[in-house]
Design a protein that fits this description.
Length: 168
């Protein structure tokens, strides 16, 4: 009976650790931690989409996200949305996004985000799409974007990670 109990406990622990690893979906590049790259699914015929993630700078020097690739799109632009009076305005950020030491920048649907331009096919929920992030100092890192629901405001299983009140 003890052997059976030990076996059940080991199986449960293996499942929990495996599930945690699957939910982690993060990357590291030097002092930068990239969390949960994801994009919204798109309807048939859509030529643009949105991509999101978080970047934490654990170092002592600032860095800057300067470029992004996404294999399912012709090119990617970094954009910002913000209210000006009563009007929501969106504009490209040609110089990218600075990530100061000790801070986290969240690219989210209602702020800074990635515009996936010239989609080659609809993005389908559950798919993973390869891409890369390029930083001014740290260099480049390959990532995979998880495709989530069309109207998602954060990645499945991580909605609180993207929409914290201190988001920058």
């Amino acid at each position: 009976m003890k052997a059976l109990t030990r076996s059940v406990v080991l199986t449960v622990l293996t499942l929990v650790v495996g599930a945690s690893a699957a939910l982690a979906h993060g990357y590291k590049l030097g002092d930068l931690a990239i969390g949960h790259p994801w994009a919204r699914a798109t309807p048939a015929g859509a030529t643009v989409g949105g991509g999101y993630l978080s970047i934490t700078n654990n170092g002592t020097a600032p860095d800057r996200l300067t470029g992004v690739t996404f294999t399912a799109a012709d090119h990617v632009e970094i954009h910002e949305m913000k209210m000006e009076g009563d009007v929501m305005k969106m504009r490209p950020l040609p110089d990218g996004v600075e990530v100061k030491p000790g801070e986290t920048v969240r690219l989210a649907p209602d702020g800074i985000h990635l515009m996936l331009m010239g989609l080659k096919a609809p993005l389908k929920k559950g798919d993973m799409v390869a891409g890369a992030l390029t930083f001014e100092k740290a260099g480049s890192v390959n990532v995979e974007f998880k495709i989530d629901d069309i109207g998602a405001m954060g990645p499945s299983g991580h909605s609180d990670h993207m929409m914290k009140p201190d988001a920058k």
